[in-house]
Automatic annotation (TrEMBL):
PROSITE patterns: RECA_2 (PS50162). GO terms for cellular component: cytosol. The gene is radA. Residues 68-223 form the RecA family profile domain. InterPro entries: AAA+_ATPase, DNA_repair_RadA, P-loop_NTPase, RecA_ATP-bd, Ribosomal_Su5_D2-typ_SF, Ribsml_uS5_D2-typ_fold_subgr, Rubredoxin_2. SMART domains: AAA. Gene3D superfamilies: 3.30.230.10, P-loop containing nucleotide triphosphate hydrolases (3.40.50.300). Residues 359-483 are annotated as: Lon-protease-like. ATP binds at residues 97-104. A motif (RadA KNRFG motif) lies at residues 260-264. This is DNA repair protein RadA. GO terms for biological process: recombinational repair.
């Protein structure tokens, strides 16, 4: 009798972490005041499980048809790129992102284009859009603005899980969009919609429905203030694909990344432009991140970074001025501050640029975020050019990771980076020297041609600055001319 009593435990309402006693701060997500007492049903450790009926007999894996799990296009090429070819029937997709980034706009566009796909097909490509955050009239207004009206696109405003499943039974769609999973509640389950128990139950029911009926379910998920997906961690394990939609509030540019994908790669990135008339795919985002100057401008250099498998060119700009304060400022926008501090130390130690009394401002064009170490060399060239007030040659890109001893290290996917720079018409690329052929800092830089673009290999940062004439000698010569 004692084993059948209901016991209590403490669980975090944010992430679902459990503990035997109450604590003020969750040890998993570090949220304060989120741990509360919950009742736990008695375990059935004393019962024995017996064999039961099976849904379908086991067959050799070679006899299982793979046609039902084939990708079908969503109508949005950039989304298909991230997913590995398109939506998969029976898959559960979770799309997370900050408020206002454009998740609902993107999925409404996907729902409309999915409904318009295969117009001559005898079977209707029906799509169901379930909104729990807005009214049906509000979603209709957005669809009018973005051109998302179609006869095979059905709309329902529901917050009850049972009602959502009923709509699916009546409409029989091929694709279902849930906006959002945190607003849907399941009756008979403890907790409020958005809580750990409710989110888990709703997600499990939607995933079971997707697998049993072979339809695609795309759910929108909220995020916490730290950027993680709100709700229990098991939510990410239940779904097949986890996507993150991110972007700067001051920019129209948005990026879609795959964090988990059971049907494709996880290193692809999709680019979108969020405008007043909806969201559109950006197949060539380089023009957004590179400023077109009429002449040579000091303090600028173009880097070639890798966003997943896609090479993207981004311009780095810097401004170096004498500081009136005892502690010079180091301000960044789109550039990692720790990488900037390391590059400044290397420039001062190995290149003779005295920057300890100067304010340094570094930023990128178009709101790009440079997290790739391969952009270190472009950052160093931009800072040196801004310090000596001498512009590098026109049409130059620089790529390479800088080490603490001043060497320039090789970066991954160098042929793809060079091919992208050559396609966009750049005349010269400064790249790291091959470690097998480099013979020290005094070795002459080797030249070669790649698709009509001159490629120069340099062993260290000092050699790169001398090649581009933005080193200490240039600064001294400019001071003599000014005198």
């Amino acid at each position: 009798m004692a084993g059948s009593k209901t016991r209590s435990t403490y669980a975090c309402s944010e992430c679902g972490w459990t503990t035997a006693k109450w604590v003020g701060r969750c040890a998993e997500c570090h949220a304060w005041g989120s741990v509360a007492e919950v009742a736990v049903a008695p375990s059935g450790a004393g019962t024995r499980q017996v064999a039961g009926p099976v849904t379908s007999p086991a067959v050799p894996i070679g006899q299982v048809s793979a046609e039902q799990a084939a990708h079908h296009p969503s109508g949005v090429p950039e989304l298909d790129r991230v997913l590995g070819g398109g939506l998969v029937p029976g898959a559960a997709v979770l799309l997370a992102g900050e408020p206002g980034v454009g998740k609902s706009t993107l999925l409404l566009e996907v729902a409309a284009r999915t409904a318009r796909s295969a117009p001559g097909s005898s079977a209707p490509q029906r799509t169901l859009y379930v909104t729990g955050e807005e009214s049906a009239a509000q979603v209709r207004l957005r669809a009018d603005r973005t051109g998302g009206i179609h006869d095979d696109l059905f709309l329902a405003a529901e917050t009850d899980l049972g009602a959502v499943l009923t709509h699916i039974d009546q409409v029989r769609p091929r694709t279902v969009v849930i906006d959002s999973v945190q607003t849907i509640g399941a009756s008979g389950v403890d907790g409020v919609p958005g809580g750990v128990t409710q989110v888990k139950e709703v997600a499990q029911a939607l995933v079971r429905m997707a697998k049993s009926r072979n339809i695609t379910v795309v759910m929108i998920g909220h995020v916490t203030k730290d950027g993680g997906i709100a709700g229990p961690r098991v939510l990410e394990h239940l779904v097949d694909v986890v996507l993150h939609f991110e972007g700067d509030r001051n920019s129209r540019f948005r990026m879609l990344r795959a964090v988990k994908n059971r049907f494709g790669p996880v290193d692809e990135v999709g680019c979108f432009d969020l405008g007043p008339d909806g969201i559109r795919a950006v197949e060539d985002p380089t023009g957004i991140f590179v400023e077109r100057h009429h002449g040579r401008v000091p303090g600028t250099c173009v880097a070639v970074t890798m966003e997943g498998r896609r090479p993207v060119l981004a311009e780095v700009q810097s401004l170096v001025t004498l500081s009136p304060a005892e502690r010079p400022r180091r301000t960044t926008s789109g550039v990692d501050s720790s990488r900037l501090a390391m590059v400044l130390a290397v420039l001062q130690q190995y290149c003779g640029l005295r920057l300890h009394q100067h304010d340094v401002f570094a930023s990128t064009v178009g709101g790009a975020r440079l997290s790739d170490p391969g952009s270190d060399l472009a950052l160093a060239v931009a800072i040196a050019s801004g310090h000596v007030v001498s512009a590098p040659p026109a049409g130059v890109v620089a790529m390479g990771e800088i080490g603490l001893s001043g060497e320039v290290r090789r970066v991954r996917d160098l042929p793809q980076r060079l091919a992208e720079a050559a396609r966009l018409g750049f005349a010269m690329a400064v790249v790291p020297a091959d470690p097998g052929t480099a013979q020290g800092v005094r070795r002459a830089a080797s030249d070669r041609m790649v698709d009509g673009m001159r490629v120069v290999e340099v062993p260290d940062v000092a050699s790169a600055l001398r090649l581009l004439q933005v080193d200490r000698r240039t600064a001294a010569a400019l001071e003599l001319v000014q005198e």
